[in-house]
Write a structure and sequence with these properties.
There is one protein chain. This protein is mostly helical. The chain is 97% helix and 0% strand. It is built from two helices and no strands. It has helices spanning 2-145, 148-155. The chain starts with a helix and ends with a helix.
Length: 156
């Protein structure tokens, strides 16, 4: 029996040792579980932030796509308007050429009228020139015949 007690004591000692090891392992597992929980919380926070950023990127992409569509529409409209204006240029040039031709003909008519008026005015000037010349010659003739002393007595 003493061997049995010895064996029992040895087994109890071994069981105590194993129990202590199990307690240490349990504590380590508890610490590991706590760290895993902390990591889980951190991963969840990161996942939440990532999902939020993903949603923001989706909204930004949709806005960007909308802006691109609007810009494309504007470019298409402006391009169409430019092509229409370019197509109208020959018609507008025709109108401009017609207007220039009309102005040229009006200028030619006015020029002819002005030449006619100028000829009439020159002929009247010629008449008055000869009339004044005749009067001057006549006055010179009569002044040449008069005596200066008589003329001075008349004036004074």
């Amino acid at each position: 029996m003493p061997d049995d007690i010895q064996d029992l004591k040895l087994e109890v000692g071994l069981l105590k040792g194993e129990f202590e090891q199990v307690n240490k392992l349990t504590e380590k597992i508890s610490v590991s579980i706590e760290k895993i929980q902390e990591l889980n919380v951190n991963v969840l926070q990161m996942l939440t932030v990532h999902e939020e950023k993903h949603e923001q990127n989706k909204r930004y992409r949709l806005t960007l796509e909308s802006d691109i569509k609007e810009l494309h529409s504007r470019i298409t409209t402006i391009s169409r308007e430019v092509h229409e204006r370019i197509d109208q240029v020959p018609t507008q040039l025709t109108h401009v050429h017609e207007r220039i031709d009309k102005l040229r003909s009006d200028l030619a008519c006015h020029k002819q009228d002005d030449r006619g008026k100028l000829r009439i005015n020159l002929s009247e000037v010629e008449k008055y020139k000869w009339l004044i010349l005749g009067i001057a010659v006549t006055a010179a003739f009569f002044l040449g015949k008069l005596d200066m002393s008589t003329l001075l007595t008349l004036v004074i």
